[in-house]
Every structure is written in C-alpha cells, then in structure tokens.
Design brief:
The complex is a heterodimer.
Chain A lengths: L10 H20 L20 H15 L5 H6 L3 H15 L1
Helix pairs in contact in A: 1-2, 1-4
Chain B lengths: L14 H14 L2 H18 L3 H17 L8 E8 L6 H11 L3 E6 L5 H6 L4 H4 L4 E5 L2 H4 L1 H5 L6 H25 L3 E5 L20 H17 L4 E4 L1 H8 L1 H4 L2 H7 L8 H15 L6 E4 L10 H8 L8 H16 L3 E7 L2 H10 L10 E7 L3 H11 L7 E5 L2 H10 L4 E4 L7 H6 L11 H21 L4 H8 L1 E7 L5 H10 L3 E2 L7 H8 L4 E10 L2 E14 L2 E9 L8 H15 L4 E6 L11 H4 L3 E5 L4 E6 L11 E5 L1
Parallel strand pairs in B: 1-2, 1-3, 3-4, 4-5, 6-7, 6-9, 7-8, 9-10, 11-19, 15-16
Antiparallel strand pairs in B: 11-13, 12-15, 13-14, 14-15, 16-18, 17-18
The chains are: A mainly alpha, B alpha/beta.
Chain lengths: ~100, ~650
Amino acid sequence: MREGDGSKPGRKELTANIFEQVRSVASDIFGIPADKITAESSPETIENWDSMQHLNLVLAIEEKFGVQFEPEDIEQMRNLGAVAALVEKLQSAAR
Amino acid sequence: MSDSIPNPTPAGHNPSDLRAEIDALIAQGTLDIAARRLAELLAELWRRDPAAGTASFVTARFDELREKTRDKLALPKFKLAILRSFTVEPIVPLLRAEAFAYGIDLEVHVGDFNTYVQDVLDGQSSLYRFAPNAVALAVRTDQAAPELWRDFADLAPEAAQQAAESVIHNYEQWIGAFRKQSQAALIIHSLEHPSSPSLGILDDQSDAGQSGLIRQINRELRRIAAGFHGVYSLDYDALVARHGREHWHDERKWLTARLPIAAGYLLQMAREWMRFIVPLSGRVAKVLVVDLDNTLWGGIIGEDGMAGIKVGPEYPGAAYQALQRALLDLSRKGILLAVCSKNNLDDAMEALEKHPGMLVRAKHFAALRINWSDKAQNLREIAQELNVGIDALAFLDDNPFEREQVRAALPEITVIDLPKNPLEYASAVRDCAAFERLTLSAEDQQRTEMYAAQKQRAGAEESFQSKEDFFRFLEQEAELEPVSDLTLARVAQLTQKTNQFNLTTRRYTEGQIAEMAKQSEWHIFSIRVRDRFGDHGLVGVAISHDEGDQCEVDTFLLSCRVIGRTVETALLAHLAESAAQRGRKRLVGRFLPTKKNAPARDFYPQHGFERQETNGAGSLWMLDLKSSTLRCPDWIKLKVK
C-alpha cells in the first residue's frame, strides 16, 4: 500500500485508526476513560489488568477485528501499542 | 410503505454516542431521576453493538446504577450457578448484558474448575450457599468421558460400552444427589461429538463407535432428565454443529486458557443459556403481534394487490412462508398470534383469507387490529382483548420506525429487531428466547383454537335477540367430576390463578387439595364445559364441606372465559342438590372481596341466597335447601361422573 495516495487511508491513519479502536475496547474492559489510555498503558499502569482481564481483552479484540492471535502473540502484548501493532500485522497478512 | 422509509436511527445513536450520553447522564449524579432513561440507553447500546467490550461497559454501568439508587429499577432477580470443566468467565458479562436486555437482573456464580462432582455432592458447598435458581452443568466430553474422547482406539468394544455406561451412571448419581439438596432447575449440557472420530469413516459404520457411544450417552441423559422435575437437557452438540464445529472451536485458547470456544461464538453460548433463563424466570411472551406488509408477506397489499404481494413456495415469497411456519410453530406451543397493521381492512382480510401462498390464515389470529391508528394504542387494545399484560406481548414489524415508536411508548413489550433480509426473518423469530417453553400442557396446545372459538361465540351472541335464545343455540354441555389424580394439577392451578370469578380466592397447592380430598366430609368438584364452538376444557372448581346440617362452600371459581353463560348457575345448583341429597338443610357460602373479584360480588343474592352477616372480611350467605328453587338451566346438559 502506498502512503498518502489520497484514495486509501495511509499507513499512519490506519495505525491511528486501529489504535483508536483498541483504546475504546480497553476502556470498556478495564472500566477507565479512553482519554486516560495511551499506547504505553500496560499491566503496570492499569490496576486491574490481570491474567483474566488479559484474556478478556484478547477475546474482545479478536472479536472486534475478526482475527485470531497465536499464543506467542498473546505473550508479546506488553502494552496497548503492541496490541494495536499485532492487529495491524494480522490484518495486513490477511489481505 | 416500509421500504421507502429511511433508517430512522437518530444520528446521535451510534454506539459511541450512546456511550457518551450514558456517561454524561451518570456524571450528572441524579441517577434516581435518570434510572429509567439510563436503562433504556444501556439496552439500546447492547442491541446495537452486542460485543464483549460493550458487555463490560453495560454490566458495569448497570451494577453502578443498582448500587447507587438502591435498586430503583428493581428488575426481577435470577441466580445462575455454572458448574464447569472449562473457562466460562469471559462469557459471564455477555450473559449478564443479554439478561439485562430481557429485563432480568442476573447474578452468576462460577464453580471451580472440574469440582462439579464435589460441589454437587457436598451439601455445604459454595454452590448451595449461593442458593441458585438454576444450575448449568457445563461439562465437555473430554472431562465427562475422557476414555471415549482420548483413548477410544485403545478400548476393546466391551470396554468402550462399559465406559459409556459408567458415564451415564455417574450423571444419574449426580442429578439424584443434586435433587436431594436443591429444587433449583438443572440444565445439563449434552456431550459434543469429536470433529474427527479416531477411526475416521469407520466410526460411523456402527452404533458402538466413538460418536455412536456419545450419542447413546446423550440419549440416556435426556431420559434421566425427563425422570426428574426441573432437569433439562441443553443440546450443546447441536449448538456447536449449528455454528460449525471448526469455527466454534479455538484450539489455541483451549490449550493456553482452557477456553474451547472462539471469541466470535461466546455470545452464542450466552444466548443458548438465555433460552433457559428467560422461561425459568417467567419473562416470556404469550402473544406475538405481527405486522402484515413486508413482514408477513413481501410488498404492500394496498398498492401491489393480491397478484403483486410475494408469498409462496418460490423465492422471494418463500422467505415469508418460512416466517409463517415459524409463527405456526409458536402457536402450537400455546403462543397466541395477533395482527397489528396499518392497512385497509378489506384488502388485508382478502390476502389473509384467500391468497394461495399464505400458510397463516385469519383463523390463526386471536386478535386483529387492521386500521390506520397508532400501533402502541392498538397493542394496548390487543392486550386488553386477550386479557394479558402489556409485558406479555411481543411485536414483529419490518419497519424500524414503528419498532422504535412502540419501544418508546411501551418499554415493557418484547420488540423483535427484524434483520433487513427477509430470508433471515424466520430465524429472528425462532431465536427469540421469549418464546421458549420448558413444558407444554394440553391447554397450551389448544389455546389458539379456544380463542378462535371464543371470537365466534362473541359474534353469534350479537345476532340473537335474547340471551336465552343464545344460550340454547350454544348447546352447552357441562361435565362434573370429583377431583382425581388426572385433574389435581389443573384444579390447584385454577385456585392459584383465578382472580375474577372467584368468591373466596383461597389458593391451594396440589398437596393441600389431595389432603382435603381424602376427608369424607369434603367434596371437590371440577367442571369441564364444551359447546357447539369447541371445548373450553376444565374451567371451574367447587369445594364444599359438610358440617352438622349445613354444607359450606369453601371455594367457588370459574375461568373468566365461561362466565355469564349460566355455567356458574349449573355448578351452584349441583352443589345445592347434592347437599340436599346428603341430608343437609342449608347451603352457606362466603363472598370475600378482593381488588379483582367484583364480577362475583352479586352471585349469591342473584341465586336466592340470603345475607347472614357482613364484616370487614366479607359477607356470609345462606340458601334454605327445602324451599330452594335453584335448578340447573334447562339449556345446559349436565353430566355428573
């Protein structure tokens, strides 16, 4: 995909768009306002991000984007930025 | 009409705007005032976007609302315990959000992994302390029948058969032990079949293969369940098959998180549980009110005419026939059908009665409102005519604008959101949990015919000059019978639910009635009525007991559908005559007024009884049996068994 060709969203916009949706799902799952969530938000910064909530987040993201993560992917999800990057990778692999 | 109306969803009501509106309302802090509005918005959000994130959002807000307003919404509560062999936690928010949308405040208890045997056997377990209304035994084949699931190829045929029998035996033990501890409903997941049996196609060449034995277990589970009151089978294998075994299953999540169901299907598991929870909690619809144009048939009868509307065995009319088959199935389960349509009556009736492609006819509908008035008003009238509450109605209409209007005016109605494609209409109706039933009585199956006959009676009544002529025309037959094992349940049910023509409104259980029936001075009669239009079934109960030289009427009631046709006189005359035959001199009876039994107020004085006394509780009436002229009306044929 060429960047900024006007007819399709550029890579930067796509990335921003995916992160926006990941943020909205995380806001629902963790019960915190979206504007308090950044790409660096992680189990260290979000109090109730435990293993069950991690599973809930993974399932909600899989459902929302119609993707399936590999177990290795799930271990790598250190923060929400990494989650969004993985979604983008899986989506572009599917195209 | 319908297809020309654009999607009426206000621009502000996409999911993210709904979330913002909800949180703004909560931030205002006046939850007590906003409670109902908040509940509507939360339900709307869930309907528009039933996703995992939304479930967390909705349940968190609902819990906050309940806590901060001290449960102002006061939704009926239901407690479900899930005993499981796999991870169900991510399904719980979906299930609670779905229950909330059905108006149920659902609390869920999840048992520990694979402790279901101990939980069931130990009377002190957290399961019983939770005091559930229902328990789901969500155990997968790999846990319930590990030998058959994993090591099938290693088993000799006898050993395999033995393994299957021991699984069945175990279930029977657990269910029996559970029933000793709890009267809660028990929902047992059937065992799923392997997607690739260990012997390949050879497996299906005998009943004793891997799949065959699992089928045998499932068949036995159904048999065991049927032997207990309130134990039900949930066909988990059929649920998986319906959505596709390969799609349903997520091997990665199973191996890493003990969650066998893929993210996209967790909602389907929740909805399957709801099909039990809705009827168990009594939130069922008793009447389905349908629109006509572009719902029951394709096109608009008033514009397209008989030749233009689409309904028949070919596409696209077949989609509407499929919906009509679903409606007929509901009516066989005792759910009444009614029509509410903006149309000219003559046009609509012609299609309903004469269109060759129609499977549902005018006679299948218990009430018809075909006019140009507001649908909410028509729905209120239908509820009144059929003698049910507004919350017992479900509404089916292709037009989202009408649906939203009805929802806003009558929030207690079940509104079915029809998908855009008519090919999906039938499953939208079949999937609605409000139409699920856990048992079916003979009365349920005949309900539509009974209401249809009732309409014919009302029509006939208008054409007679005098009441007496009408009564003679009806050719009523009444059959009186002492209570027996066969009628005990219905007699108790009538004492519990008859409100209008009920002189004393005394409620009795089956056990109490059986106890009374054992005593020789007590006489318990039921009355069954039929006439030229059909059978009313068992519709009345009279309980009396002798004391000294008088007989006292303890209970006298009739279902409202036969009141005013002198059946009540026939029943009372029989009480008087049989008391006189037993040598009693007086028949006495009380009228105990309630909010609802005004129709019975003048019953005794109208039949020659004299008032003995009146106090705060009610009045006592007496008939002198020697001078009484009370007789069964000669237009009723009375049979005493």
